[in-house]
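Moderator note: this is an archived Q&A kept for reference. The question asked for a predicted structure of one protein chain; the sequence and the answer are reproduced below.
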Amino acid sequence: MIFSAAELRAACDLVYTQMPPTPQYVWPTLTKRFGAAVWVKHENHGPTGAFKVRGGITYINWLKRTHPDASGICTATRGNHGQSQARAALAAGLTAKVYVPFGNSVEKNAAMRAFGAEVIEFGHDFETARDEAFRVADAENLAIVPSYHTELVRGVATYGFEFLTAAPDLDTVYVPIGCGSGICGVIAARDALGLDCEVVGVVSEHAQCALLSAQSDRLVETNSAHTFADGMAVRVPIQEALDVYAKGAARIIKVSEAEIAQACHIYFTDIHNVAEGAGAAALAGLIHEQEIMRNKKVGVILSGGNIDAPQFSTILNGGIPTVNT
């Protein structure tokens, strides 16, 4: 068990000083479509439009308590983690330097700047931007914010704690996997509450490092991660996260770019919510496993809604967004 129920309740108390709990609903249109009772956890309704905001609150609180002389942070992101950290850092009186790869989401970059971050483009993918963030943090004596850390997971786990407290009888919960804080948080919440629902991780067919690593029981890097679901566009897995989801997840499945785009489209047509690619991946997992989920109670995490307008327009017109390779 990563956290006790008491530790997660304390994390909730801290998170709620800056945001209210997000809602979860059973949507009849989705239930009719899939032949299962479908609960949606709406992390797209948080103050940054994504679940990462929770980890920013707990991590920066921890940083201020344990490193009181820190003047600023440095991190790397595809957007949602960066918004979370910039928002929390600025509120705590810290500067925030955020590295993103070239070609990153224009609208996520703008949001990070609006939250107070200095956004720097570097490299061709997340991993090269992350390496530069670590180098600069060391050179400029800034506090590095990694992609995975106990204090990040403690904050992120609060959405799983909310969800599974509200719907403790779910049979299965689908969760997208990028660096792993989201699925590890849901597993932590399930275990703290003593529930037995299955947690199913979802990756893009073009970003399979988490799946391959879990199958091999060792870290497996991939050569590329060219998916429009940028929150899952990870080539290099993280050992601490793998240690949790390899044991705690019932299975990890891969979905196609077409299934992710279909899920984005369904979210809009059925419940009039906007989902980014990674945010729709859990529903894509349900699409992929629809037949075995019939007549069950299923949870899906709508983890973020921060998709650029041109990509969303492509999806609403029946297409699949492309990414530069």
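Archived answer notes: The chain has two domains: 5-51+150-316, 53-145.
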